[in-house]
């Protein structure tokens, strides 16, 4: 069975641990290809090397996902560790309807959201200052370049990726969570509402405001770069 000591396995896993368990009839990793079904089978029977392999293969990506929600490394590590423990307890219920990596990803996101809800938080910064301002005739007070594309599309552009991530991190937590879930995680409005204990209508309103705020942050950042360049 898994022990808490196994949680540090990523620091001990070595290349020879991967795909060398002929006695088990399991070869989960060959080169850069992961046989997730074989790895899942080994996890279910409790092989420690299988856990080490899972951490080694997926740990970095899962930590990055947790970091986007928690915004600091220590909390992200706590989230991933809790997510691994949740995954172990649920292995027998995992029916394989999706990939193992996708399942772990979802558990990490859910765990991060639970942490955000449970910890005491300081009052959120108001978002109104980041929303577009309008003149009496209905026109924008300021004219910016169009940054209204969804965040996932902006992140696909290599030249804007780092800036988009930095601007997303500036959003107040409750708006950032909705934006991350809808635009980055691609969850449905109903799923986001259930995860955040909100109504679907509230999710739509908050998402709209979050996108507007992100557009303002991006426009301001690129306007600043144009002036200083």
What does this protein structure show overall?
The protein has 229 residues and is mainly alpha-helical. It folds into two domains: 115 residues, RNA polymerase sigma factor, region 2, helix turn helix motif (Rna Polymerase Sigma Factor, Chain: A), CATH 1.10.1740.10; 101 residues, Orthogonal Bundle (Arc Repressor Mutant, subunit A). Helices cover 58% and strands 2% of the residues. The protein is built from nine helices and two strands; from the N terminus they run E-E-H-H-H-H-H-H-H-H-H. Strands 1-2 form a two-stranded antiparallel sheet. The longest helix has 29 residues. The chain is elongated and about 60 Å long. The N terminus is likely disordered.
Feature tags:
229 residues, mainly alpha, Rna Polymerase Sigma Factor, Chain: A, Arc Repressor Mutant, subunit A, 2 domains, 9 helices, 58% helix, elongated
A few lines on this structure:
The protein has 229 residues and is mostly helical. 58% of the residues lie in helices and 2% in strands.
- Strand order, biggest sheet? 1-2
Average pLDDT, rounded to a whole number, is: 76
Q: Topology as H/E string?
A: EEHHHHHHHHH
Count of helical regions: 9
Oligomeric description of these chains: single chain
What's the SSE blueprint?
Layout: E1 29-30, E2 33-34, H1 36-44, H2 48-70, H3 73-90, H4 100-118, H5 151-156, H6 161-169, H7 173-184, H8 189-195, H9 200-228
Antiparallel strand pairs: 1-2
């Amino acid at each position: 069975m898994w022990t808490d000591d196994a949680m540090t396995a990523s620091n001990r896993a070595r290349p020879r641990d991967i795909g060398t368990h002929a006695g088990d009839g399991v070869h989960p990793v060959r080169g850069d290809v992961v046989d997730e079904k074989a790895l899942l089978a080994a996890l279910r029977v409790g092989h420690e090397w299988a856990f080490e392999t899972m951490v080694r293969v997926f740990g970095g990506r899962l930590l990055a996902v947790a970091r986007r929600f928690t915004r600091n490394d220590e909390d992200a590590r706590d989230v991933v560790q809790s997510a691994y423990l949740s995954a172990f307890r649920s292995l027998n219920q995992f029916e394989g309807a999706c990939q193992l990596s996708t399942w772990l990803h979802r558990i990490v996101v859910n765990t991060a959201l639970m942490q955000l809800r449970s910890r005491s938080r300081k009052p959120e910064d108001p978002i109104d200052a980041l929303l577009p301002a309008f003149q009496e005739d209905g026109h924008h007070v300021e004219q910016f370049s169009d940054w209204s594309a969804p965040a996932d599309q902006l992140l696909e552009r290599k030249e804007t990726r780092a800036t988009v991530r930095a601007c997303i991190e500036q959003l107040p937590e409750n708006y950032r969570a909705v934006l991350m879930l809808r635009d980055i995680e691609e969850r449905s409005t109903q799923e986001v509402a259930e995860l955040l204990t909100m109504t679907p209508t509230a999710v739509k309103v908050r998402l709209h405001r979050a996108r507007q705020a992100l557009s303002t942050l991006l426009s301001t950042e690129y306007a600043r770069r144009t002036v200083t360049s």
